[in-house]
Amino acid sequence: MNxxxxxxxxxxxxxxxISLGHRAVHVEEVGILLSPDQAIxxxxxxxxxxxxxxxxxxxxxxLLTSTQKTPVVWIRIGNCSNAALTRWFxxxxxxxxxxLEQGEYLIELF
Length: 110
Description:
Blueprint: E1 2-5, H1 11-19, E2 23-26, H2 37-46, E3 50-53, H3 56-64, E4 72-75, H4 82-89, H5 93-101, E5 106-109
Parallel strand pairs: 1-2, 1-3, 3-4, 4-5
């Protein structure tokens, strides 16, 4: 699978996903760190990437579009260290993959 990590999340999350055998890039790596949400959405759609974000706007973009969809993993935990985030995320990743393989478009993690 292919993932796009949004700006509020650390590049370390992309590295974790890569270490688990999947493709992942952070928005900073592809030059869209400061881009509006719609531009990030369009990039994810064009590159067939699941967007991982803490930003509710991506959930709204998903729910408001009838075409040009891409899955969204919406992380709803408070501020924490990058290490704590990756420790929390890693055991959830197999279930995220299972939901994506089942065709889910919105996965909410809290």
